[in-house]
Design goal:
Number of strands: 34
Number of helices: 5
Strand content: 35-45%
Largest sheet: 16 strands, mixed
Low-confidence stretches: 1-43
Mean pLDDT: 90
Distance between the termini: 68 Å
Shape: globular
Structural class: mainly beta
């Protein structure tokens, strides 16, 4: 006998099983709840602004999203319905002529510090997502309504049945009391991004990366197909968002606890259920843009000094080292692996904070956030993977970094991981342990053969003031090191290491520079770089 959601939505079922038991019973029967119409049940305890319509009430409790993900993993993948061709065919300029009317913001009629505004599906966003409001143990779908959006007279007349919500943004009092500003966005596949106080959007994060830069299989982009946004209580400092992930190869459940401020943090708990065995996974992925800076400035005819959302990858290894890898814009796809066990953290950093490093008064790249990943618990053996993709324009995200576990995720298994993201101004929690690399430059020698790399370290107590007490240990996977020099940089108060190498033209070279004091203490970040002729 076929059973429907309504068969389970009875007071007897709720009283007997509770919210989680209800979902488990539905999952066992092969039934997943769908967003109902507003007339099916009264609105209950969720207060909405005028014009916002809610669907039927559903119970909600910790564990429910996980139960849904587990049940979906046991079923064949069912792709979501795409939006209509008219909505997909919108141009970039047209999609900018429609936006959510802020007076309809979710929880805007309450004293909740959390508010959410929706995006319409169109152009690049081909799949609508379901978004639920959560309060006092119940969840209710926010029903799509064309009238929730403002449209200019330049927006074409389109039927609202061909689209839906593509995601949402969170707004809060991040700069000024009483003024709600955007600080986090969830839209597209499992992409999301955030800013801290005084910042502008830059790089994005992903809930899960699959087969990224894998040589033998195409990349797969899982999707967050459903979101639940909890109503915050007065004076709450965090917004809580739940997400249900799905793709042909896996499902997953995510919980985000988001705190905005001078540093915006996200505490993420996730569980992933593979439908098939996964060997090329990417946890805590960050996606960014690097076009050029002092390392490759000569390749671009541009009035600006630099163009990038991130300028380096920082890794805090489980053994206590700090690795700094300046980013590159290569001629072909380059993938770098940094093997580790139980890493303390990693992330794509934007260290250049001086507007003069860019000379761009519109883009303000100096305000783009860095993104630091701090694992919770032991992540075991694996690698931080950096993927660099050629790009000729700043509109392309060409940098990806993530953690790849050494062990595959087996089909039918349950894989839990947790971590904290810091969206900050370039100062992750490990800063101060060793002298940071603050600039990297390269160029051909003028009066002798070889290529010189100049590495500037910040002023730091561990360096001291005598360059003669320091030692640069340089290794190269190919070529010859013909000279090293350490001298004080009077402009910064720190130290500069100059390294000259004779490099081959027929193969890439992995370079490594370590700065030691007294022969026994490493006092600076390990500088790494891949040279490609």
């Amino acid at each position: 006998m076929t059973r429907t959601v309504s068969d389970f939505l009875t007071s007897a079922a709720l009283n007997r099983r509770g919210a989680l038991g209800l979902v488990l019973a539905m999952a066992a029967a092969g039934v997943l709840p769908r967003a109902g119409r507003a007339e099916e049940l009264p609105e209950g305890g969720i207060v909405t602004p005028e014009g916002v319509k809610l669907g039927a009430a559903e119970p909600f409790a910790d564990g429910m999203v996980e139960a849904l993900a587990r049940a979906m993993a046991e079923q064949p993948y069912a792709p979501p319905t795409e939006i209509s061709p008219e909505w997909k065919g919108l141009t970039y300029d047209q999609i900018r002529e429609i936006w959510f009317d802020g007076k309809h913001a979710l929880y805007g009629a309450t004293d909740s510090p959390v508010r959410a505004e929706m995006f319409v599906a169109g152009l690049y966003q081909h799949f609508p997502v379901e978004i639920f409001a959560v309060a006092r143990g119940e969840a209710r779908a926010i029903l799509f309504d064309y009238d929730l959006f403002v449209r200019t007279d330049r927006f074409p007349e389109l039927p609202e049945t061909g689209t839906g919500f593509s995601g949402f943004r969170l707004t809060g009092e991040i700069e000024t009391r009483g003024t709600f500003q955007e600080y986090a966005v969830f839209q597209g596949a499992t992409y999301f991004r955030a800013v801290a106080k005084g910042q502008q959007y830059g790089l994005s994060a992903r809930g899960f990366a699959l087969n990224t830069a894998a040589p033998d299989q195409p990349e797969e982009f899982p999707q967050f197909r459903r979101f639940w946004i909890e109503e915050g209580k007065l004076h709450d400092e965090e917004a809580v968002v739940w997400a249900l992930m799905d793709s042909p190869s896996l499902t997953g459940a995510y919980r985000f606890a988001i705190r905005k401020g001078d540093v915006t943090t996200m505490d993420i708990e996730a569980v992933v259920f593979p439908r098939v065995t996964l060997t090329a996974t990417g946890l805590a992925a960050g996606t960014s843009m690097f076009l050029f800076n002092d390392m490759n400035r000569i390749a671009f005819d541009d009035f600006r000094e630099g163009v990038h959302d991130s300028d380096g990858l920082l890794v805090a290894t489980g053994l206590g080292d700090l690795l700094w890898r300046p980013l590159n814009n290569p001629k072909s796809v380059e993938t770098s692996w940094f093997s580790d066990e139980n890493p303390r953290g990693f992330g794509l950093m934007q260290r250049a904070r001086d507007p003069g490093s860019y000379n761009d008064f519109a883009a303000h790249y100096e305000r783009r956030p860095s993104l630091w990943v701090e694992p919770k618990g032991d992540w075991g053996k694996g690698s931080v993977v950096l993927v660099e993709i050629p790009a000729d324009k700043e509109i392309y995200d060409n940098i990806v970094a993530f953690w790849r576990p050494e062990a595959p995720m087996e089909a039918g298994s349950e894989n839990r991981f947790a971590y904290r993201l810091y969206w900050a101004d370039g100062a992750p929690p490990v800063d101060g342990e060793k002298a940071r690399v603050i600039a990297s430059r390269q160029g051909d020698r003028v009066f002798e053969a070889g290529r010189m790399f100049a590495i500037d370290y910040e002023a730091h107590p561990a360096l001291g003031s005598d360059p003669g007490a320091l030692e640069a240990r340089v290794t190269a996977s190919a070529g010859d090191v013909t000279g090293t020099l350490i001298h004080r940089n009077e402009a910064t108060g720190g130290m500069r290491v100059d390294v000259t190498l004779i490099l081959p033209e027929d193969k890439p070279v992995e370079l490594r520079v370590e700065l030691w004091r007294g022969g026994v203490t490493m006092v600076g970040e390990v500088w790494l770089y891949r040279w490609v002729a």
